[in-house]
Amino acid sequence: MKKIYSTVVALFATISVMAQSQGWPANYGGVMLQGFSWDSYKESKWTKLESQAADFKGYIDLIWVPQSGKCQSSGKVMGYKPYYYFNQNSSFGTEEQLRSMIKTFKANGIGTIADVVVNHHDTNGWFDFPAETYKGETYQFKSTDIVSNDDGGKTLSEAQKAGVSLSKNIDEGEDWDGCRDLDHQSANVQRIIKAYVKYLKDDLGYTGFRYDMVKGFYANHVGDYNDAAGIDFSVGEDWTGNEDIENWINYTSRKSAAFDFQFRYNIRDAVNKNNWGELNSTNNLMHDTNYRRYAVTFVENHDMQDRGTTDGYTPDDIKTDIPACNAYMLAMPGTPCIFQPHWLDYKDELKLMIDARKLAGITNQSNYNNLTSQAEYYANEVYGDKANLIVVVGYTSKYKPTNIDNYVKIIGKSRYNYYLSKSANVAWINKPGGVYTLSGTTKSISVKLTAVSTDANAKLVYTIDGTNPTINSTQVNNNSTIKLDKSCTLKVGLLTNGTVTGISTREYTIQEPVPFEPYKITVYVNDDQVNWSNCYFHSFGSTSNTATSWPGKQITATKEINGKKWYYQEYNINSEGDAVSFVFNEGKTGTNVTNEQTVDVEDIAQTTYLVIENNPQDAQAIKHYSVKDVTEEMTTGIADAPIIEKENTDNAWYTLSGMKMLNQPTQAGIYIHQGKKVVIR
C-alpha cells in the first residue's frame, strides 16, 4: 500500500480544500452499532431491525446495515458481490421495507450507515453488467471500465477470447478475485458511483457510508464520492498498519474516518494473551490526538468472527471477556462500533456503559490519561465534556484508583469497573431503559439509585409519571433500591440544599409473561404466473418435524379465493421461535428434467399467502423464481375476525383467527392488539 500512496501524493496536493463532506463530525459523542454479523439473515432483516428502533433509541446513534442492493445469486448472500445499485431488494428484505426501516430509525434519532461496495462489481459471465435506469438516466458499466490486470490477468485472457477491450489502466490497489475490479479513473465509473451514492443519501435516506475494501482503489475517490453525496459520516475499511490508515485518511482530504484496526488488535492481544498491559499500545488511531476524531473503534466484526465451517476465513475472534472489551472501548475516545452478536448477548450491560459514556460527555476527541498498566489489570482516566470516567479492565479486585475519593463506582463487575467523577453531580440509575418481562414469583424489577455528587449529604428524589422530580417528590437515601411493577418513565434527581439537579431518565416497559400456546398456521401458494403442472412444498427449519426430503410434498389441496387457485397446507407452531421455511417447486424428477423452483422463503410463523412470480432471480439453467408475500392484501379485515374483549388482551397480540402470539409479531400482516386492528408492514 505504501507504493500506492506514494503514487497519489501528487494528487493529494491538488485536491480542493473546499470539502462538501466532513468525513466524521468533530467532538461527536454518538455510538454506532454494526447491525449484522456473517449470515445474520434472520437477525438483520429490515423488519427485524426496524422493530428494535425503540430499544435502540437513546443508546445507538448510528446503525451500519448490510449492503442493501440486489445481488445476482438466488440464495442468501451478504451483498459483497454487488450486481444492482438502484434495485434495493436484497436478502434482508424489500426496498419498501428498507425505506421503512430507515424512516423509523430517523424518527427515533438514529442514522443508518450504508455498506458501499464499489471496489468491484459482479457480472453475468465475465463482462456483462446490468443496465439500470434511474430518474430517466441509464447506468451501465462496460468492459472498458474493468482494470487491465483484473484477477491476476485472467480477465484479460477472457477478453481476448471474447474480442472485447478492457481499460488501459491497472488496478490502483489490491485485486479481489471473483468480481470485476472497477477502474475508478474511468469517467463512466465515476458517473455511475456518484449517482449511486447520491441515491443512497437523497432518495433512500441513508445518513452515511461504510466503504468496503478501500485498499483496492485510491483514497481520493472516496473524498470525491462523499462530496458528490454531501455526506457527513464516512468510514473506510483499511485493515493495514496504523501509518497506512492515517495516510489513507489524509488522501481522502480527511473526508472519511477509518476503522481503527490496531485498536481492535490491541484488545484481542490483551485478552487472548491474558495480558491487559497490551492495551497501553500507542499503535492505534485512538491514542493520537490528530486522528482520534476519525477513529471508529471496534472489538469484533463480521470478518473476524468465528464463521464455523465457512471456507476461506481463519477466525480471529476474541475468546473471552467480551463485556470487558466493550467496556474499555465504550469508555475511550473515538466512535465505538458495537458488534451485533455482542449487543444481543450483553445488551443490558452495554446500555449501562453507554449511559455512563454519555453522562460523562465522552466524545471521539476526548483526552485520557493512563493510571496503571499491568498484565493483570489496566486503567485509564478519560476526560469527558461533563465529567471524568475511570475504566478498569482485568482483575478489577486487585486495583483501586488512587484518587478514589473524587469518584463513585457506578458499575462494578469482576472484569471491568466504571467510576464516575463526583463533579458530574448527577443521579445514577443502575438499570438501563428497555423492556422487562416479569417471571415466576417476581412481580417487579429492582432499581438502585446512586448519588454521584460532591455533596456527601445528597439525597435522591424521583417520579414515575414522567414529570421532573421536585423537593416534594418521593425522597430516598443514597444507594437506595426501589421496586417498579409497571411500565413507567422514571426520573431521578439529586436533592442538595433544597434544590433538585442532575436528573436522569429511564423508560421502562414492564410486562407480564405471555405463556406460549401452540397454534396452527396455513401456508397458501399461488403459481398462476409460472403455470406449474404441480406444486410441491419442500419444508425445513421447523421444530415440528415438518422437514421433507427433496423435492418435498406434493400439495393437492386447493382453495379458490378471489377467483384464483391457492394450494395450501397446515403446519404446527409448537414453541417460541418456531417457524417453517420453504422452497416451492414443480416436483419434476428424472434425468435431463428441469425442476423449476423458488428462492428460499424463510421463517414463516403465521398464516401466509405467497405468490410465485415469473421473475427468475439468476441466469442458472434451473430457474429460481422470486416469491411475493401478499398476506396483507388477502386478509379480509377486522370484521371477519373473532371478537376479543379489550380487557382480556393485556399486552398480548392475536392473529385474525384468534390465535394468541407470544410476542409482538415481526412478520408483516394484520393483527389484533388491545382490541384494535394493527397492520405491520
What is shown here, in short?
With 681 residues, the chain is of the alpha/beta class. The protein folds into four domains: 2-259, TIM Barrel (Alpha-Beta Barrel); 426-511, Sandwich (Immunoglobulin-like), CATH 2.60.40; 519-634, Sandwich (Immunoglobulin-like), CATH 2.60.40; 638-680, no CATH class.
Keyphrases for this structure?
six-stranded mixed β-sheet, TIM Barrel, alpha/beta, 4 domains, Immunoglobulin-like, eight-stranded parallel barrel, globular, 681 residues
Can you tell me the CATH architecture of the largest domain? Answer: Alpha-Beta Barrel
Q: Give the biggest sheet.
A: 8 strands, parallel, barrel
For this structure, what is the CATH homologous superfamily of the largest domain? Glycosidases
> Tell me, what's the shape?
globular
The stretches of 5 or more residues where confidence is low (pLDDT under 50) are 1-19, 637-649
CATH class of the largest domain, please?
Alpha Beta
Which structural class matches the secondary elements? Answer: alpha/beta
Summarize the helices and strands and which ones pair or pack.
Elements: H1 2-14, E1 32-34, H2 46-50, H3 53-56, E2 62-64, H4 95-107, E3 111-116, E4 120-121, E5 132-134, E6 137-139, H5 154-162, E7 180-181, H6 187-204, E8 208-211, H7 219-229, E9 233-236, H8 242-251, E10 257-259, H9 261-272, E11 295-298, H10 322-331, E12 335-339, H11 340-360, E13 367-373, E14 377-383, E15 388-394, E16 407-412, E17 416-421, E18 426-429, E19 434-437, E20 445-452, E21 459-463, E22 474-476, E23 480-484, E24 488-496, E25 499-511, E26 519-526, E27 536-540, E28 553-554, E29 558-561, E30 564-573, E31 580-585, E32 597-598, E33 601-604, E34 608-616, E35 624-629, H12 631-634, E36 653-655, E37 660-661, E38 669-673, E39 676-680
Parallel strand pairs: 1-2, 1-12, 2-3, 3-8, 8-9, 9-10, 10-11, 11-12, 19-25, 26-34, 32-35
Antiparallel strand pairs: 4-7, 5-6, 13-14, 14-15, 15-17, 16-17, 18-20, 20-23, 21-22, 21-24, 24-25, 26-30, 27-28, 27-31, 29-30, 31-33, 34-35, 36-37, 36-38, 38-39
Helix pairs in contact: 1-8, 6-7, 10-11
